[in-house]
Amino acid sequence: MHERTWPTHNRFIYPLATLRIPLSRLEQLNVPLLGVDRPNLFSLRSRDHGARDGSPLLPWIRGLLHEHGLAEADGEVVLQTMPRMFAYLFNPVSLWFCHDRDGRLRAVLAEVNNTFGERHNYLVAHPDHRPILPGDELRASKVFHVSPFFPVRGEYRFRFARQGGVVSTAIDYWEGGRCQLATRLSGHEQPLTGRALAAWLVRLPLMTFGVVARIHWQALRLALRRVPFHRKPLPPTEEISS
């Protein structure tokens, strides 16, 4: 769900599905219809994430957490992302949920892509590195251009929850003292099986293609409403901000 509140109201909801993969088990993953670093109807490729060079993902995120002093996040890392479908992918945001050895959430990396082929990572955690509880609000300054209808200023406010098999993420954009955009991603967890992927394929056969089409359709609607347009600035020099 996306809901723009200013300077014009625009709200839409689309069906979506994502994978949630414990990275410690990635290399052993063997599911019909899903290829890990190999072609299939669904595919998850290391080069789409992390260092983007095809190197293993878990060492990359471990190094990033260590570099940012998050030694507490030394447990499982769960990557929530859309896979490629029929080899095609545009992934607006992938989320890396970084836990400690007791399973408590300690940090989340939001890996953001824009339609200009650029990306940026927002690493969010409590300043004192305490566990992140449902409803806790984490903030990050906006430094990366995503939509031409919003400036690169203000901040994002994140909230994460997982309860009763429902996983939800809220990312709100605040600027000028108001929430200008509210986004929600929520869904029911299901076991990752060939049958579940087949059902996904039947229900959402063109999902990854539809993501880009819907982005441009909503942009056209905003342009027709004469929402102010902001030129794309240069991307930030750092790939990670916290």
UniProtKB/TrEMBL annotation:
Listed InterPro entries: DUF1365
UniProt-recorded name of the protein: DUF1365 domain-containing protein
Pfam families per UniProt: DUF1365
